[in-house]
Design brief:
This protein has two domains: 167 residues, Periplasmic binding protein-like II (D-Maltodextrin-Binding Protein, domain 2); 143 residues, Periplasmic binding protein-like II (D-Maltodextrin-Binding Protein, domain 2, 3-Layer(aba) Sandwich). 34% of the residues lie in helices and 19% in strands. It contains 13 helices and 14 strands. The strands form two sheets. Strands 1, 2, 3, 4, 7, 8, 9, 10, 11, 12, 13 and 14 form a twelve-stranded mixed beta sheet that branches. It is globular.
Length: 347
């Protein structure tokens, strides 16, 4: 069971070391967030915890391993996987009174309906987020695109790319068609989205699967406009010298939100809560904002960033993430996958 005793008033923004158990704690995460740079501070604060790490490439891999009986204490999921993890009974609710930095989160992250687990409890502590909208080459497209429908513009035929990912592609088509809830579609809406995606196929250069692939297509000049990310646009522009910008379409961008959860059965609940709180530390949030160019959850990071850095990751407009459509796994996702296969098979 998760602990319920809150930290005493007046304590610092960490759980006191004398309240954290002695033993082994395993965090299961993406490789870039379990480096010594991220975890040495926790080890110094809680030397009685033997912190171990395990990494995965994709969350599907992590879920499959956990379903198979793999034991860990803390997981790094994203919001779209919370329904999957809770349906499989793999998560322990997080007691926010044991997350001293919880009070510093942007209200949007604290109040996200997708993570709520009851009064004072959440399934995940949000740590970072990002926007997904349209990337385009400014030397090829003028005026700038404004709508998801610009990915169907015949003026750009042969120079448009779309992500080969059922959930995002169908959601984009749904937004382009004017549907307000792109991850909850009726069968009729799903069919309309399929038809619209099939109409797009003759205009496409190709479907892409990875960030590396789409960046190379922009660098070569073969792609002028595509589904894309803020960080990739900045990388192309600032590191590769390619004139690429990102825009959030008027129908709303998509957004991913990721963080940390406590896995069912942990024998180190206080140590696990302390680690979730550690990932919210301003120093780590600064690394995520400046090195990864992520939108981060803890408002304290604003004191560490320059005005230029704040603008670079969009922290000058926190409402941009709030206004976006948070990515979730549709309840009938098997049907979405069928529809996507029909799109791919269409001439």
């Amino acid at each position: 069971m998760a602990p319920t005793e809150p930290p005493a008033e007046g304590e610092a923004d960490i759980l006191p070391p004398d309240r954290v158990e002695t033993g082994e704690l395993l965090v299961y995460s993406y490789e870039e967030t379990v480096t010594d740079e991220f975890l040495d501070g926790y080890r110094e604060t809680y030397p009685q915890v033997k912190l171990r790490t395990a990494v995965y490439g994709e969350l599907d891999e992590a879920v499959a391993k956990l379903r198979g009986g793999y034991k860990a204490d803390v997981l790094n999921p994203c919001v779209d996987y919370i329904p999957i993890l809770t349906n499989l009974d793999l998560l322990e609710p997080v007691d926010t009174s044991l997350i001293p930095r919880w009070k510093y989160l942007f209200p949007f992250f604290r109040d996200m309906k997708e993570i709520q687990a009851g009064e004072g409890k959440v399934w995940m502590v949000p740590v970072d987020a990002g926007l997904e909208g349209i990337m385009y080459r400014t030397d090829k497209i003028d005026p700038p695109p404004t709508s998801w429908n610009d990915l169907w513009n015949p003026k750009y035929a042969g120079h448009i790319a779309m992500q080969d990912y059922a959930r995002n592609a169908i959601a984009v088509a749904a937004l382009a068609l004017g549907y307000e809830d792109p991850f909850n579609l009726t069968e009729e809406q799903l069919q309309k989205a399929k038809e619209y995606l099939i109409q797009q196929k003759p205009l496409l250069l190709n479907y892409f699967e990875s960030d590396t692939e789409i960046r190379e297509l922009f660098k070569s000049g073969d792609v002028w406009i595509s589904f894309g990310w803020t960080a990739d646009a900045r990388t192309l522009r600032e590191e590769e010298g390619v004139p690429v910008e990102y825009i959030s379409p008027k129908e709303g961008a998509l957004s991913w939100v990721c963080g940390y959860s406590i896995l069912k059965g942990t024998k180190m609940p206080y140590a696990a809560h302390a680690l979730l709180n550690h990932y919210l530390s301003p120093d780590l949030q600064y690394i995520e904002a400046t090195d990864f160019e992520y939108f981060v959850a803890n408002q304290q990071v604003l004191d560490l960033l320059s005005d230029e850095e704040i603008a670079l990751v969009g922290l000058d407009r926190p409402e941009a993430v709030q206004e976006a459509h948070v990515e979730i796994t549709p309840p009938d996702y098997d049907r979405w996958l069928q529809v996507w296969e029909e799109v791919l098979a269409a001439p």
